[in-house]
Amino acid sequence: MVRHTILHAMHDVGLAAWFGGTLANAISLNPAAGAATDSRSTGAVANVGWNRWTPINAAAIGLHLVGSAGLLAGNMPRLKAQQGVLAMSLAKTALTAAALGATAYGRALGTKVSKREDLPAESGTEPTASTPPDAATAQRQLSMVQWTIPALTGAIEVISAYASEQQRATEVHKGILNRLMG
User: Fold this and answer.
1) How far is the CA of 10 from the CAs of 58, 95, 137, in angstroms?
2) How many distinct structural domains can be found in the chain?
């Protein structure tokens, strides 16, 4: 039996950083930016924070994807033999694709917002009356996307926990028997 400790660590640490970083920024960075001394500083503070997070987030996502791909390749025999593993893998892949899409969309919106260094804003995701319309629209959309990403990555965490349970010897035997019995 081949051990996949490094792949599991890459999968889990990458996903944890992706989930935790986006959740922390939604909970703390965006609202905390509103504590800046004036509305123009608010946008700048949020932009600096998100721009610093972006490369770390990209590395975390890459780490997670490499670990995921390695685990998937290593689990191909179980995928074919054990009932329920394929369905779990497909659900996890669909959630990962959705989280990647939401992350890319959030970054595109963030890029629109961060084009202006002195963007007037109430918080990282709340425009003021003087926020330019394109940036205000992007901020309103970001206010929803900022919660979508941790929701999706959190769901991946839950499915990963379920996948771990499927690897117990009793579950493997039961899944293989169920597959054979039809």
Assistant:
1) 13, 18, 36
2) 1
Residue of 34, 57, 55 lying closest to 139 (CA atoms): 34
Give dist(CA 167, CA 161) in Å, integer: 10
Q: What letters, b where the CB count within 10 A reaches 16 and e where it falls short, cover 44-60?
A: bbbbebbeebbeebeeb
- CA–CA dist 16, 60 (Å, integer): 8
Which H or E run contains 122?
Answer: strand 121-123
* Structural domain containing residue 38: 5-181
pLDDT at 165 over 80: yes
Is the separation of the CB atoms in 61 and 103 below 8 Å?
Answer: yes
* pTM, two decimal places: 0.88
